[in-house]
Amino acid sequence: MSQRCARRCQVRSLGRVEARRARRRTSLVASSERGDDGANQARQELEDELLSDGTGVSMLFPRQVRRFLAGSGAVGCALGIASTAAAAPQSTGNMVENLTINGLGFAACAFWFLQESNEERAREVAEMRREKIQRQIDRGERVEFTTETGSRASKWKQVDDEWILRRLERWGKQDMLPSIGPVKGRLLQSLVREHNPSLVVEVGTFLGYSALTIAQALSEGSRVVTIDNDLRFVLAAKRFCWQANQGTRADGQPRVGRRVSIWYGDAEAHLKEMRERYNGVPQIEMLFIDGDIRQYEQYLVAAEPMMKRGCIVIADNTKVFGHVPEIQSYLQYVRESSRYASSTELLTKYEWRDDVDDAFEVSVFGGL
Ligand SMILES: C[S@@+](CC[C@H](N)C(=O)[O-])C[C@H]1O[C@@H](n2cnc3c(N)ncnc32)[C@H](O)[C@@H]1O
């Protein structure tokens, strides 16, 4: 390339960089005038460019061009090595010199190519991290603050019961998990607050969402015992309840994870054993049934000797599974047995589905 041509190319590429910067400046002004998010992004790009520890070359040539140059340089040198080696038998000299130059050229270009690729990857990773942090801020899991040097930063919010419940809701909605979800959760909490039970027993812990929801609505000193026969769920729920018991709630509410006791095993067997554990003295003031829908009646009959008169029995999914014979039998039992003072269908929505009706059957125990 002649000197004049090289100079013209340099000027042209400088002109392009300037033009790009000018366009960015214009868009920065335009977007800040509009006051939209574009201003933040343009400012971020300018800051990134200024903070980047790139060289003059990196300012003149975009990364794709640099990678292309490095890659084609490496390929050229590799071809040079191959052709020198192929010509070796008839070579009249210069072979060692050619191999050395091409070898060094190949190593330098390959190193440059790898470095450019790594930097690009690092930039992508940093961008992905920034987006992830922004999503965490949007979800309320992180809080933003200003550091001593005046720059903006963010940190995780303290993990507490609210944090855990929001996280379980997000997973629940995403994977359609069988937790009761926020709509039924609020209904359940209003029933707990209305009746203020000292002891709630829940059949079917799963990940502990409903147990923590109940615990939030209990008054100090009251507790919820929740039973599940799947060890994986019991361990996961124990972990979430432990996490929910960490930190200090900003709103001054007490920690609620410790109000939850998780029992592993078959609910019917545990409920029968409770009679010996408490010397046959009824303790349960609220029973929430959310286990296997074919066994609701068995759970209830097993719990009855331990239920106090006036105990509130709440059975989940009685509308959505209203066609299942065992649920029909359960409803007939609580609605017709003299052991129950009343039984009402409380309409709600199926978990994660605003378009599907469901119900809690709420019954008041009148005694054996
Ligand atoms: C619908 S999930 C419970 C959801 C939970 N109440 C919530 O809202 O987060 C049903 C749970 O009942 C448990 N289960 C089923 N049969 C059981 C039994 N006989 N004894 C105890 N747990 C049982 C299952 O392992 C499952 O975790």
From TrEMBL:
Keywords from the named record: Catecholamine metabolism, Coiled coil, Membrane, Methyltransferase, S-adenosyl-L-methionine, Transferase, Transmembrane, Transmembrane helix
GO molecular function terms noted in the UniProt entry: catechol O-methyltransferase activity
UniProt cross-references to SUPFAM superfamilies, sorted A to Z: S-adenosyl-L-methionine-dependent methyltransferases
A Pfam family: Methyltransf_3
Keyword Metal-binding among record annotations: no
Coiled-coil region(s): 114-143
GO BP terms: catecholamine metabolic process; methylation
E.C. no: 2.1.1.6
Residues that span the membrane, as ranges: 68-89
UniProt-listed InterPro entries: SAM-dependent_MTases_sf, SAM_O-MeTrfase
Enzyme class: transferase
Family to which the UniProt record says this protein belongs: Belongs to the class I-like SAM-binding methyltransferase superfamily. Cation-dependent O-methyltransferase family.
Name of the featured protein: catechol O-methyltransferase
Organism: Pycnococcus provasolii
